[in-house]
Amino acid sequence: MKKTTTAVMLLIASLQMPAQTTMRDLWLALPDSVVPYLNASQRTEHADFIDMGVASEVKNLLDGEGRMDTLTARYASVRLNDNHTLQMRLLTKSDSTQVVCLVDTYRAPEPESTISFFDTRWQRLGDTFGLPDLHTLVSDAGQTERFFAKPDTLSQTATDELKKMIDPVMVSISLPEDEESVILQLSTPFLLQDEKERLKSVLMQTKFKWMGDLFKECE
Q: 181-186 and 75-81: which strand pairing?
């Protein structure tokens, strides 16, 4: 009798738990407004090729060729064309609801990204979940200080001169496949290669780790 009661309680509990969506489900249901030149059939092709373990190269509606690099239960990375990439991470909150984190990056030729959050029905969420607002970040010099570090080998004056080379301010964002985090760093537009090399000595990336309901900046 005890075993029967326990089994019934477990069954009821499982039925009350919200259904968990996978990244494959989300990719197939991706709204056309996110990637207008990739239709449902082409998205399905990408996912099917990944399932078969073959190169996921598919022509889009503009006759360009894209490639899905990764598709797991909680993560996807897609090169939509030579200048456009999409990364998605499925996050779970402490109340078991799921949030989609989507990073959209264009290269022209340096990368510039946007980041958006959605529920599993692809309804946009008006929340940054602890991440800095990108519009404020690129317009506020105080905010961009988080991307710089002064090396011991450089004077403060030399460091400040290198900082001035970042103009305009453009933020590149990436989602690592192997951890629930967001990495932000500054792009280096309109610079010669030797100038970019010099800037490397003062530039640093900023990582934010998912803590269950919000992202927290790593020390």
A: unpaired
